[in-house]
Automatic annotation (TrEMBL):
Xref: SMART domains: Aamy
UniProt xrefs under Pfam families: Alpha-amylase
Domain Glycosyl hydrolase family 13 catalytic: 6-757
GO-annotated biological processes: alpha-glucan catabolic process; trehalose biosynthetic process
Single GO molecular function: (1,4)-alpha-D-glucan 1-alpha-D-glucosylmutase activity
Stretches the record annotates as Disordered: 548-567
Gene3D superfamilies given in the database record: Glycosidases, Maltooligosyl trehalose synthase, domain 2, Maltooligosyl trehalose synthase, domain 4
Domain of life of the source: Bacteria
InterPro entries: GH (IPR017853), GH13_cat_dom (IPR006047), Maltooligo_trehalose_synth_4 (IPR013797), Trehalose_TreY (IPR012767)
Biological source species: Rhizobium tubonense
Protein name, UniProt field: Malto-oligosyltrehalose synthase
Length: 885
């Protein structure tokens, strides 16, 4: 297998095409990247900004350059010695009429050849939640009408821009009421229509309606018929689909979706035929040598991830590098029997927080936040509350489906358990789940999952207002399939759907709710992270890296992605708040007083409320330009900040949300945000800029340290587009902007790692450090892909401000030395030379006869003596030493 030495994540769409990416290959080569890591490139829904809403999994998107453009990109990469990793989406597709498979299912219902491709409940009609209000209101306001879609060759129901195809079996009943000659011809054609010959049927129908005058007559007749509400209602009743208001989706949807996104429908890739159909192009690209690795999106959405990965491996071969998007909770490890190289690396971000968070002052930060968030429950209690909110509202249909399955098992077995008791037990179990999911199959639960399930039941049983013990035991037996023969199929379906729900429930409750409610230190509010941050320590970081070297040395090490809540340098800066929580508290109090007149007092409270103010000042500090002149704010900063405010308020789901927007509240908080950045607010801007200067400076050095650690710790360093220099982005869509690659290329031409203030502030030093580190990884691939990980201890002055470790192979060693906790630096001071006093780092016995060279500045050292930190960091804040046997 060709293990990447590094990856560079590139987001296609929004102006990034294959030809534009091809032009970047020389830059990536100079930077030292070994593999381009591409976002999904398959044809997506019209206007897609990300590509995860795949409309055709077997076509490369023409808007990106199509198959020819992709082949040119692959050829350019391979000619330069670079590989290509492709992001694929097996869990879901776009529930869009642009998607051929979905359109077929809408038109033909369960007779469609693709009816079993999607995870649809065919015991009822397919639900289409596209209406802006209930159907009866829509009919009364004449917003629905029958129409000819001449381009598609179909009769449809029109709702604004949506032309929903009618089932051809219903054509005759409609056309028999139309006094136009063409009606009988179309009816005859429709009577012979077959879903497997749908293309021919539509082509023939297009021929019939190609005459504009004839089609106009037909259209006018259909419009007249549409005005008869009773007729239109009967036509709707005989369709294989049912129109819903979009707000009804949470309780009435008939298909499994991605999280709570009704526009994304689940695929049944557990079916071998669906697996083959949905991966044809992917396999063609791999077997044709165009693609060297695969990234699997949302692996936890699949019925049986292990079975899927094993089947995938058989198709693409053992030489293809495979990683999965899998969120690991604190202490959780990948299932050891998954045939993959690792994850996309969110757990690496969590591990880094142990380096840069000062947990000694955690109680001070708690107190400071507690003075603001007086009514805020603890984080764990908040998660439970958020999960219940989602179960009762956003994910109600999924929870209700589980309840029906439990009731079905009880009925088949003659167990008399009332629905209220079942619902209570189910909710308590769902709320108690501490990780994304278990992976039970027809073979049962493995030891790890059995222990997790037992822990969940114990937690549910021992909370206040515990569920009925007999009912809890019943759910336990159903989950383990310890049921009667007649009930086993329903029990198996219950477990499948339960396991597919706990992941979205955790993600939505934690990442998309609590991460916007619990704002103590938002640097910790990261995917897979632990926002309380009470037990961060260097020891825990070293333990995590030791375990990482053992379990997934070839997994990606991410610091920024298209889904992170903020850019890596924003996070690195905000870590430093943990070093001075009292100072931050005092600053926020001062800023709140300065801006008190901009708070709007609404009927349901102030806008923004104090806790949201706390959030906004952190977010603004994180995104504040590092090299800002006197009030010289970037032109796009306000728009970016206001978009972040809107998303934060809606995700929190407290006074507004995506489903029911509170316009007055949102407008008031946005106005507050705009006033923060107004030139008329110069006293605040001056105070804010001066106050956060030390945090900015500490963050810049944190960013260099974070970068070196990523380059040398176990795992494959992943560089997200543009983050090779400063990544001061907010949550998406802010973090998906296309970087200025021409500027990045020019920066890379400048050489040297020196104490250059301008290069520190504009990210050039970070970029040069990446180029240096990647050059070493390319020269010593075995050292970093297989080398052992050993923590090193610093002793003497400021020893708590140093993180050091080595990577060791039989014939080579690399030593990483980086600073932390640098908020106390003086203005313009660098953490070099005498700053470190008598601090030193002892080398382990095995390498004490080796000579080490610091590749940052060329200095050499004998490993037999403790290495003086002042000498290691003489000219630059980080050191990377290399030795050969």
């Amino acid at each position: 297998m060709d293990i990447p030495r590094s990856t560079y994540r590139l987001q296609f769409r929004e102006g990034m095409t294959f030809d534009r990416a091809s032009a970047l290959v020389p830059y990536l080569k100079r930077l030292g990247i070994s593999h381009l890591y591409a976002s999904p490139i398959f044809t997506a829904a019209n206007g897609s900004t990300h590509g995860y809403d795949v409309a055709d999994a077997n076509e490369i998107d023409p808007t990106l350059g199509g198959r020819d453009g992709f082949e040119r990109l692959a050829a350019a990469l391979h000619a330069a010695g670079l590989g290509l990793i492709l992001d694929i989406v097996p869990n879901h597709m776009a529930a869009s009429l642009e998607a051929p498979w979905w359109r077929s299912v809408v038109e033909w219902g369960n007779q469609s050849p693709f009816a079993r491709h999607f995870d649809i409940d065919w015991n009822r009609k397919l639900t289409l939640p596209i209406l802006g209000k209930p159907l009866e209101e829509i009919l009364g306001s004449r917003e629905l009408s029958l129409a000819v879609d001449a381009e598609a060759g179909a009769l449809t129901v029109a709702y604004f821009d949506n032309l929903i195809p009618l089932n051809p079996a219903s054509y005759a009943g409609i056309l028999s009421q139309l006094p136009v000659p063409l009606a009988s011809e179309i009816a005859t054609l429709a009577s012979r229509a077959d879903p497997r010959g749908a293309a021919e049927f539509h082509d023939e129908l297009k021929e019939l309606v190609c005459n504009n005058e004839t089609t106009l007559h037909l259209q006018n007749a259909l419009a007249d018929l549409s005005a008869r509400h009773d007729v239109l209602r009967r036509i709707l009743e005989v369709q294989p689909w049912q129109l819903l208001g979009w707000k009804e989706a949470a309780s009435k949807l008939s298909y499994r979706r991605f999280f709570e996104v009704t526009g994304l429908v689940g695929l049944r890739v557990e079916d071998p035929a669906v697996f083959a159909d949905s991966h044809r192009l992917t396999f063609d690209l791999v077997r044709g040598g165009l693609v060297d690795g695969l990234r699997i999106d949302h692996i936890d959405g699949l019925v049986d991830p292990r079975e899927y990965l094993e089947r995938l491996g058989r198709e693409v071969g053992s030489d293809v590098y495979i990683i999965v998007e899998k969120i690991l909770a604190e202490g959780e490890q990948l299932p050891p029997n998954w045939p993959i190289s690792g994850t996309t690396g969110y757990e690496f971000i969590s591990a880094l927080s142990h380096v840069f968070i000062n947990s000694d002052l955690a109680s001070d930060l708690d107190q400071a936040y507690g003075e603001i968030a007086v009514d805020q429950p603890g984080f764990a209690a908040g998660i439970r509350k958020a999960k219940m909110l989602l179960i009762e509202h956003n994910l109600a249909v999924e929870a209700n489906n589980l309840l029906k399955l439990l009731a079905g098992v009880a009925g088949l077995q003659g167990d008399k358990i009332d629905e209220r008791s079942l619902r209570d037990a189910l909710c308590k179990i769902l709320v108690a789940f501490p990780t994304y999911r278990t992976y039970g199959t027809t073979e049962g639960l493995n030891e790890t999952d059995a222990a997790l399930w037992s822990k969940v039941l114990f937690t549910a049983a021992n909370r206040s207002e515990a569920p009925d013990g007999r009912t809890l035991a019943f759910v336990d037996k159903v989950f383990k399939s310890e049921v009667s023969t007649e009930a086993r199929e329903k029990a198996a379906e219950f477990r499948r759907r339960f396991q597919q729900l706990t992941g979205p429930l955790s993600a939505k409750a934690i990442e998309d709710t609590m991460f916007y409610r619990f704002n103590r230190l938002i640097a910790l509010n990261e995917v897979g992270g632990e926002p309380t941050g009470r037990e961060t320590s260097l020891q825990r970081f070293h333990q995590a890296m030791t375990e990482r070297a053992r379990t997934q040395p070839h997994g990606l090490s991410a610091t920024s992605t298209h889904d992170t809540k903020r850019g890596e340098d924003t996070r690195a800066r905000l870590y430093s708040i943990s070093e001075a929580p009292a100072s931050w508290r005092d600053a926020v109090k001062r800023w709140r007083r300065m801006n008190a007149e901009h708070v709007t007092h609404l009927g349901d409270g102030p806008a923004p409320e104090p806790e949201v103010e706390w959030l906004l000042y952190q977010a603004l500090a994180g995104v504040w330009p590092a090299d800002l002149g006197e009030f010289d704010l970037p032109g796009d900063l306000e728009a970016r900040f206001l978009a972040y405010i809107e998303k934060s308020l809606r995700e929190a789901k407290l006074r507004t949300n995506w489903g029911i927007e509170n316009g007055d509240y949102e407008a008031a908080v946005k106005a507050y945000g705009s006033n923060l950045l107004s030139p008329d607010n110069s006293p605040f801007l001056a105070d804010f800029s001066k106050t956060i200067t030390p945090f900015i400076r500490a963050g810049l050095f944190n960013g260099l340290a974070q970068t070196l650690i990523k380059l040398t710790a176990p795992g494959i360093p992943d560089i997200y587009q543009g983050s090779e220099t400063l990544d001061l982005s907010l949550v998406d869509p802010d973090n998906r902007r296309i970087p200025d690659f021409a500027s990045l290329a020019r920066k890379l031409e400048t050489s040297g790692l020196t104490q250059d203030e301008q290069a520190l502030h504009d990210g050039a030093l970070k970029q040069r450090l990446i180029a240096l580190g990647l050059a070493l990884r390319n020269a010593e691939p075995t050292l970093f892909s297989e080398g052992r990980y050993r923590p090193l201890e610093a002793i003497g002055d400021r020893s708590d401000q140093i993180v050091a470790f080595l990577r060791e192979a039989d014939d080579a060693v690399a030593v990483t030395v980086a600073p932390r906790f640098l908020l106390g630096l003086g203005n313009g001071e660098w953490p070099c030379r005498s700053y470190w006093g008598n601090c030193s780092i002892a080398m382990p016995d095995g390498i004490r006869t080796w000579q080490l060279t610091n590749i940052v500045d060329g200095a050499t050292f004998e490993a037999g003596d403790p290495l003086p930190t002042a000498a290691l960091l003489d000219l630059f804040p980080v050191a990377l030493l290399v030795g050969k046997r």
